[in-house]
Amino acid sequence: MNSHPSLADFEAFARGELATPEVRQLVGHLMTSCTDCRALASNVFRLHGQPGPTPPARPERGGNRREEAAIDRAFATARAMAVSAAVARECQHDRRRGRRGRGLEAVERLLDRAWELRYEDPPGMIRLAERAVREALQLEACEHGEKLLADCRARAYGVLGNAYRVADRLEEATGALGIAEGLRRQGTGDESLFAWLSSFRASLHAARRECDVAISLIRRVFEIHVRRGERQLAGRALISQAVFTCGAGQPEEAARLCDAGLELIDREAEPGLHFIALHNKLSFLVEGDRIEEAYRGLREIRALWPSESLNQLRLAWLEGRIQAGRGDLPGGREILAAVRAEFERRQLLYHAAVIALDLAAIELKLLRSEEAQRTIVGALEVFTSLRIPREALAATVLLHQAVEQGAICVALLERVSDRLRKAAPQ
């Protein structure tokens, strides 16, 4: 057995087919702090609708509490592994009845379809990615080779993790991308897969307001694509780096990086990416208080609005902010209220709550303080119910204290909403 047990090792253990020395190795490994292997176990069974395991009851005894906790984790994970036998039998039954795909190609088709939905239908993307993961877990190494199969499963978990991130489900995104990275290490060593997964991880770090980590990761991705002569992908990496750089409080540098990315990409090959880059550039101009320049840019790209309604919503959100920034408070309020309602309908609650704070700032400027207070309280309830990044949570605590003390002002609202907006999944 290698230093990290494979999925096949866990399944053999669950079926009682693992030799005793290897069993000791596997359980010993689970007693360490290897988050990848523990995450692999818990996420596989969660995706198959299995309940979380509970540690076996043991009599009270003295000793090292940390060691006992590790033993509890090992037994809990081992119990979870036993479920894999039932999962394997179900998968074999599905294959015999012809209800599943026909190998790696079927998984790739599902992933392609999921990727196409990333701007239009995040919940649909999650459903297809979860199905792709289940399909990939059914494939057998004897038919496809262990390393190629590990790559396929890594791609499936990567798309799933990114789908969770887009849908504001950051904890689940962290678990899925951790599994993807662990599987990649067991695979062929494909550098393009490493770069692809690293770009997803960078976006997740940015969503958690860990911008320095995100920038470091995406720079490495950019360097890989430049060395491989992949101009389009290098441009995409620069456009992502621009977003992370703005999140770190450098909108001018972000605008420069965005321009550099636009120089590299082929607009005809990826019109959606071209639009996103232009949209981001306008956002950076707004962050840098260059409202009139952003307004002119908005008029120029209006004809380029893509058909994907999620991107349309993001642009409308930006348009509402620009209108309010130019002094058209009622017009900005009307646009933002409509965008907020649509985000709520799509269950993208984090985005909707951030827009609520933008609306509350406008309401204060319109001297509607009671309405602003109700809007803020409603948004805080949403943030409290979500697992949001630590820095974003600190901003909401500050806002909550201001509400309790009756000290809400436009400057505080705009500062908090700015932080939360930068933490929103892209």
Provide a concise account of the structure shown.
With 426 residues, this protein is mostly helical. The chain contains 21 helices and no strands. Helix 3 packs across helix 4 and helix 12 packs parallel to helix 14.
Write up what this structure looks like.
This protein is mainly α. It is built from 21 helices and no strands. The protein has helices at residues 7-14, 20-30, 35-47, 65-96, 104-116, 122-138, 141-144, 146-166, 170-185, 191-207, 211-227, 231-247, 251-264, 271-287, 291-301, 309-325, 329-345, 349-365, 369-385, 390-405, 410-422. The model is unreliable at 43-101 (pLDDT under 50).
Which features characterize this protein?
426 residues; mainly alpha; 21 helices; globular
Largest sheet: none
Distance between the termini: 40 Å
The ordered H/E elements are: HHHHHHHHHHHHHHHHHHHHH
Question: How many helix segments?
Answer: 21
DSSP strand count: 0
- Beta-strand proportion: under 5%
Return the structural class: mainly alpha
Helix content class: over 70%
Shape: globular
Unreliable residue stretches: 43-101
On the 0 to 100 scale, the average pLDDT is 78
Rg from C-alpha positions?
24 Å
Q: What topology emerges from the helices and strands here?
A:
Elements: H1 7-14, H2 20-30, H3 35-47, H4 65-96, H5 104-116, H6 122-138, H7 141-144, H8 146-166, H9 170-185, H10 191-207, H11 211-227, H12 231-247, H13 251-264, H14 271-287, H15 291-301, H16 309-325, H17 329-345, H18 349-365, H19 369-385, H20 390-405, H21 410-422
Helix pairs in contact: 1-4, 2-4, 3-4, 3-9, 5-6, 5-8, 6-8, 8-9, 8-10, 9-10, 10-11, 11-12, 12-13, 12-14, 13-14, 14-15, 14-16, 15-16, 16-17, 17-18, 18-19, 18-21, 19-20, 20-21
